[in-house]
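Hey, quick one: can you model this chain's 3D structure?
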Amino acid sequence: MKFGILYEMQSPRPWDGGSDQRKFAEALDQIELADRIGIDYVWAVEHHFLEEYSHSSAPEVLLGAVTQRTKNIRLGHGITLTSPRINHPARLAERISTLDVLSGGRVEWGTGEGSTAIELEAFGIPYDEKRAMWEEGAREAANMMALDPYPGCRGTYFTMPCRSVVPKPLQRPHPPMWLACARRESIRRAALNGLGALVFGFVEPEEAAGWVREYYDIIRSDACVPAGHTVNANVAALCGFSVHEDGQVAVGRVASGFGFFGYGLGHVWTFGEHRPGRTDLWGEFKRAEDRIPFHPEQGAIGDPATVTDQLARYERAGVDQVILLQAVGHNRHEHICESLELFGRDILPPFRARDVLAQARKDESLEGHFAAARDRRARLTRYPRSEDIPVIRAAARQEALRDRLVPPEGEIGGGLPMLHESPGAARPGQDSG
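Sure thing. Here's the predicted structure for all 433 residues.
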């Protein structure tokens, strides 16, 4: 079993002019530490307009900075919102590919629909169409990374002509794809589409075991037809985390932060009435904090033995990755770093040793199923034929063909040497023979 860490970039009030800057600087320090101790993944969410709850509206920028401060940790979008009304598929493909190039091929590409009214209404996304938008955006962005040129699309939610989308990612045909999952139905959908399942709802290990079995039964079946061009068979589960030699200290350090996380989750998804720029989410939470239960035994929170036992339950359940959530609310940077240091020294090594052998067995047992799924996907792919690839004339050339004069030499380009016609080409109206 592997391990990841997750960042919502929560920034509860009260704010000052440097609040966001400190949060991002602390996150980068924590991720650099996680890379050093052997954490496998870092995940950064994409949310918009969710004041206090999540200021991670440009995760590609945060992860771009991470590429320059780490060597091994894999960089996960957890997730990109793939509706074309939020992220045009070409821009998604360009950003994911560039990040993959910068990181030396370390990107994990999580995808998802989005679900809060604050976000969906702002981008004009009808709730009953968001899944279809996710599917179209994710499928076409994957095609843009895998195919050269991209043959184009006349879809329901976006249209684009044939283009070569560059750069291409280092990981071919594209980085591993994941789907954000909150319910069992979405885990099934991840398996049917050959996607890793990012289970962001907190789930007990024994319940997770049933989900994992069903997921892999689908992966092995003929029903698995990848949404991308390959299969990423993995189940990752989110888990609250804090470890200290004194278990009560571990609990006390994160109780308020996780209380705020749960309250904020309810506010943006279920019960909240939000006034942009005016609602004080932290203040509302503090007034209700005494009535919000906190169950540390449901997470990996406590002394090293307690945390090890809880994580081992996920390992026995067949979970491929546990994503440790710690940087929430006003949890303190130094406590987060101390927890990570202790985890890396006393808890992580035996899990890593067992994972090496388990991963090799898993890859061997599933390769035949992966090959069959890739074949099913390939039969659905429209590969561009050379004779169908259009010629795109430069703008000035198009003007010339409309009997307009090409601008005189030097008129465009600020003195830079720019050719205004192909060397040896005929001018408009001139016989090219």
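One thing worth noting: Residues 410-414 have pLDDT under 50 and may be disordered.
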